[in-house]
Amino acid sequence: MSLLDRFSRPLRSLRLSVTDRCNLRCQYCMPEPDYVWLPRESLLTFEELATLVDAFTPLGVDRVRLTGGEPLLRRDLHVLVSQLAGRRAILDLALTTNGVLLAEHAARLRAAGLHRITVSLDTLSPDRFRALTRSDELHRVLAGIDAAAAAGFAALKIDTVVMRGVNDDEMVAILEYGRIVGAEVRFIEYMDVGGATHWKPSAVVSRREMLAALAAHYGRIEAIVEQSSAPADRFRLPDGTVFGIISSTTEPFCASCDRSRLTADGIWLLCLYATAGTDLRRPLRAGATREELQRLIQAVWSVRADRGAEERLGMDRETTLIPIRTLRKDAHLEMHTRGG
Ligand code: SAM
Ligand code: SF4
Ligand code: SF4
After folding, report:
1. Which CATH code, of 3.30.1050.10, 3.90.550.10, 3.20.20.70, 3.40.50.300, is assigned to 13-338?
2. Residue nearest atom 22 of ligand 1, based on CA coordinates
3. Partners of 184 in the beta sheet?
4. Which mutation among 19, 26, 259 tests ligand 1's pocket best, with the greatest number of atoms within 8 A of CB?
């Protein structure tokens, strides 16, 4: 029987942020000129990560996603992948990446046992990519997507954060591109989370607006009815192409949220919006047994009542939730530290 929180939500999906470092500076995630990084000695080793995962799986975790920062910056990530892929309790092992280093790593990650890959891609224009990420690497991201498609993952997805006046005119182009490379595209509403210091309500393109824009181009869009705790609602175009929308800002899905996050230094966060977490590194390094770690995890999850995106929606604020001076004091509040 799985462990339930206060709203009867099971503990199932665990996102492991394997590094807080990143090789891009996306406007909606890391727009500032400089950042404070987690001390290197605080980062969990692969063995420590695997030990913690082994404490989570008997409590219901069967889906693990590696993220960051940029997870492919973590040296020898395929070694961690093969360790986790060997765990029978993990039914779904996935990775979210910005794709810059993916061409070099895709085949090795597949061989190590990674099931699924999601690549973040917000534009197909090199100029816009430069403005959005402060980098010239779009060609490498596209090569990474090609390599992932060739490597034969069980699923390849493209995640696109849609921002008004920035890339909202590219939704059709990205869907068409996804069709060509065999990737399911998911459009994400721009969220007021962590490092999104430039967020403002007027920049959010809502799910309703996205559907209207796509229907104006393609015609009737059919909603796919499915029972799932996955964040994306899925839709079908008249030609059969399936895509998703993650409406985290205007229609949050906290009621069915079974996700939690572990930062690269072992802080366990129960919600993307959580302002504090549980330090699992300290007991781990102090020699806690797996049973002791499990008891801690169990005690924390059983009183979880987080519903950050719903609460954020209720606030109806024009300004960001976490001011920059607060972010500067605690790197754990940053999206690139907690893993998207
Ligand atoms: N660096 C990797 C990447 O970009 O795919 C993994 C980590 S990144 C934090 C994970 C996801 O969070 C990305 O798909 C990114 O687009 C999303 N993200 C970051 N900031 C966001 C924001 N303010 N609103 C919506 N999505 C955001
Ligand atoms: Fe962009 Fe991901 Fe890096 Fe954030 S962590 S700046 S979303 S690539
Ligand atoms: Fe889950 Fe928190 Fe996101 Fe709601 S805001 S879906 S509770 S992580």
Report:
1. 3.20.20.70
2. 191
3. 157
4. 26
